[in-house]
Amino acid sequence: MIKLRTPREIELMRQAGAIAAAARGLAGKMAVAGISTRELDRAVHDFIVGRGAIPTFLGYNGFPKSVCISVNDEVIHGIPGTRRLCDGDLVSIDVGATKDGFVGDCADTFIVGEGSVEACRLVEVTRQCFFEAMKHALPGKRVSDISRAVQECAENSGFSVVRDFVGHGVGERLHEDPEIPNYVQAPRRGADPRLIEGMTIAVEPMINAGRYGIRVMPDGWTIATRDGSLSAHYENTVLITRDGARILTQTE
């Protein structure tokens, strides 16, 4: 069931989103050569808790850490640990913060030091995919209009779109209806709802430099590209308004 948010709920989501966005930015600034992903996780955890919120991902379906940190060919759900970042690494930081019962969910991909031409272009195009999608996040449009915008932006740039994981509704829970794919699916009954004022959704392009196939790593959580190519991830929690999309995961 798709929920429409009241003004009070939207304000609570904005507050949670601001914490998540600030935590994402903190992790991006800290992502330098030599730091461990565990250190990034601890800093983000302490930041979120210090602002009166809860790290949404910690314990979610058994996830053991507060942040998903995915490096290079890892797409999403990387578990922070002893790995230390190196110059040129691509680091995707996915953060959720829950405050007063509502969730803010966002992600970005950062380059450690000097990145390759391919890495820089992949990050740029992944972010561009999100903002192309925002042009279609309007009442009366359909979910597939967002999906098509992401897919066309990525594929016209020579990249591919991950198909096994999608964006989603977000609110009192991290994952709510509807699903927001980053590619146009074959028609399925009820799978392409219209966007309505008051909907809150997480739009999150996951773009691979190579083919779109993925594999699950031995830890059972980390998702990596099947062909070993680089991957990037960009996400914001978005409110549908009569005037267009409003990003709720922004720093205050």
SSE inventory with pairings:
Elements: H1 7-30, H2 37-50, E1 54-55, E2 67-71, E3 74-76, E4 90-99, E5 102-111, H3 117-134, H4 143-156, E6 160-161, E7 167-169, E8 176-180, E9 200-203, E10 206-208, E11 214-216, E12 223-225, E13 231-233, E14 236-241, E15 244-247
Antiparallel strand pairs: 1-4, 2-4, 3-12, 4-5, 6-10, 7-8, 7-9, 9-14, 10-13, 11-12, 14-15
Helix pairs in contact: 1-2, 3-4
For the secondary structure, the number of strands is 15
The third-level CATH topology is Creatine Amidinohydrolase
SS-based structural class?
A: alpha+beta
Q: What is the CATH superfamily?
A: Creatinase/methionine aminopeptidase superfamily
Question: End-to-end distance, in Å?
Answer: 31 Å
Mean pLDDT: 97
The sequence of SSEs as H and E is HHEEEEEHHEEEEEEEEEE
Low-confidence stretches: none
DSSP helix fraction: 25-40%
Q: Main beta sheet, described?
A: 5 strands, antiparallel
The largest sheet has its strands arranged as: 8-7-9-14-15
CATH class: Alpha Beta
Q: Structurally, how many domains make up the residues? A: 1
CATH architecture assignment: Alpha-Beta Complex
Provide the β-strand percentage band: 25-35%
The coarse silhouette is globular
Tally of alpha and pi helices: 4
Radius of gyration: 17 Å
